[in-house]
């Protein structure tokens, strides 16, 4: 048996799989979030550890009811929310609440980082407030008494590793999101650390995701009735999620339709396109990288329109949209409710309905929303294509993948087949468990451990619909963003 633990923003999740890859038990524990000031987002690392212990103990209890003993567990893997800054002193005391990936306080520090010589060439990415390094620059400027006491900086999942094993370690997929990693060479960049004001020994040791980073400490092993099993390096949440759904080989890709929208494509070599806000990261497996486009509001836009227009729920919106014939003069929707990352990197971008007429009905707004999210995702996919990585095998996951109508629309917009698989909402905890399997059993075949789930449907694009979206809707969609961008940017800075 192999245990995967995923430290999310809203909950800790744990999953237990057997050697055949079957999920045998699951558990979770909710987490709280603190927003002490506008644009601030923080969590207490001590709460992470308390929640992790609760989730593990729940999972062991569930497994016990199925006749599975804790001593059957052969390895543990970790996954977690990326970019969070967890700062410790020399005694491993937490110096302040962790600053999370969705914290926006350090935009000024990002501007400074972009002026550093060789910054984009080394990191492969834009400096964005979500990343870790600008958070440390903010601490150096605004909380110098904290900064001066920092002995170690850990990413969220790696604080759990410290609690489990006593080791300071991370994996290259998570480290790539710090802006301290030379992503092409998969090593810490001395230059980026020096410019931040940190020594290299403030960083955890670096490992591939399927490497052993330590062993469960004796006290915990005794308490849980487990052996001192190896703990794998694991991966950042997106990389671990990809491992969980079998997206591990060159030109494989997944499109995640969650609250945000993520297009994740695997490469067997380093590629980057920071000028279009494409994320260039290491994958959680040796010799692989990935490019990622991130859309901040995807399925959340559908929730927004359902609430705005009085639908009972999202399924009612989808059903009404499907019953309505799309019109050539249909409204447009810009899906930038929370700003946007790829390809615009525009914190001031805003959502909008345009082209409303006297005969516009709410089903038109529903279809405009579904289409607008699709056109936004297409912008991100084309930015990844422009970096030199065009994937033709795209698996759709996330809550939005349950809609046959929307996934067909997306296939028509993108112009490529979209594959749906069993368990398409698999979380990163499964990927963490698979990485634990690979760490504990080095001889295990990647294709066996990271098998892709069974195909349940394939949405083939309709050539006529694709031509319509490409020739008529996409150019107008992009023009609307350009026309409105200045309006919202001025409003956002006054």
Automatic annotation (TrEMBL):
CDD domains: ASKHA_NBD_FGGY_EcXK-like. It catalyses: D-xylulose + ATP = D-xylulose 5-phosphate + ADP + H(+). Residues 1-244 form the Carbohydrate kinase FGGY N-terminal domain. The record marks 6 as: Important for activity. Its EC number is 2.7.1.17. The keyword ATP-binding applies. Catalyzes the phosphorylation of D-xylulose to D-xylulose 5-phosphate. This is Xylulose kinase. It comes from Dyella nitratireducens. The lineage of its organism: Bacteria, Pseudomonadati, Pseudomonadota, Gammaproteobacteria, Lysobacterales.
């Amino acid at each position: 048996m192999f245990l995967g633990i995923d430290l999310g923003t809203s909950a800790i999740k744990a999953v237990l799989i057997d050697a055949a890859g079957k999920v045998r038990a699951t558990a979770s524990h909710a987490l709280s979030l603190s927003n002490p000031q506008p644009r601030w987002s923080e969590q207490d690392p001590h709460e992470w550890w308390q929640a992790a212990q609760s989730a593990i103990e729940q999972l062991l209890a569930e497994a016990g009811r199925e006749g599975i003993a804790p001593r059957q567990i052969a390895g543990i893997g970790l996954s977690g929310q990326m970019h969070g800054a967890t700062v410790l002193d020399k005694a491993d005391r937490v110096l302040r609440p962790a600053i999370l990936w969705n914290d926006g306080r350090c935009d000024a520090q990002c501007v400074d980082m972009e002026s550093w010589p060789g910054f984009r060439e080394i990191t492969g990415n834009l400096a964005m407030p979500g990343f870790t390094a600008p958070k440390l620059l903010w601490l150096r400027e605004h909380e110098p008494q904290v900064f001066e006491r920092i002995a170690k900086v850990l990413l969220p999942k790696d604080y759990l590793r410290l609690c489990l094993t006593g080791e300071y370690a991370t994996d290259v997929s998570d480290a790539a999101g710090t802006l301290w990693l030379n992503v092409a060479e998969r090593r810490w960049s001395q230059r980026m650390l020096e410019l931040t004001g940190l020594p290299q020994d403030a960083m955890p040791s670096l490992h591939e995701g399927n490497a052993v980073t330590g062993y469960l400490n004796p006290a915990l092993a005794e308490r849980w009735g487990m052996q001192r099993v190896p703990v794998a390096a694991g991966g950042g949440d997106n990389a671990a999620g990809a491992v969980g759904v079998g997206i591990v080989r060159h030109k494989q890709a997944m499109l995640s339709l969650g609250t945000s929208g993520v297009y994740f494509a695997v490469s067997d070599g380093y590629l980057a396109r920071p000028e279009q806000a494409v994320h260039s990261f290491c994958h959680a497996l040796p010799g692989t990288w990935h490019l990622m486009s991130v859309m901040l509001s995807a399925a959340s836009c559908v929730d927004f329109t359902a609430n705005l227009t009085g639908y009972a729920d999202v399924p009612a919106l989808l059903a009404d949209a499907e019953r309505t014939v799309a019109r050539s003069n249909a409204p447009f929707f810009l899906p930038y409710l929370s700003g946007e990352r790829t390809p615009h990197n525009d914190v001031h971008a805003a959502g909008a309905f345009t082209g409303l007429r006297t005969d516009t009905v709410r089903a038109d707004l529903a279809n405009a929303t579904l289409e607008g999210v699709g056109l936004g995702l297409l912008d991100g996919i084309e930015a990844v294509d422009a970096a030199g990585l065009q994937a033709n095998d795209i698996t759709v996951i996330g809550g939005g993948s349950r809609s046959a109508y929307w996934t067909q629309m997306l296939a028509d917009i993108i112009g490529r087949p979209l594959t749906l698989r069993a368990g398409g909402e698999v979380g990163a905890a499964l990927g963490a468990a698979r990485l634990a399997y690979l760490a504990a059993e080095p001889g295990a075949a990647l294709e066996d451990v990271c098998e892709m789930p069974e195909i349940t449907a394939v949405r083939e694009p309709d050539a006529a619909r694709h031509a319509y979206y490409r020739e008529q809707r996409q150019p107008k969609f992009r023009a609307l963003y350009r026309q409105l961008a200045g309006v919202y940017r001025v409003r956002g800075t006054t």
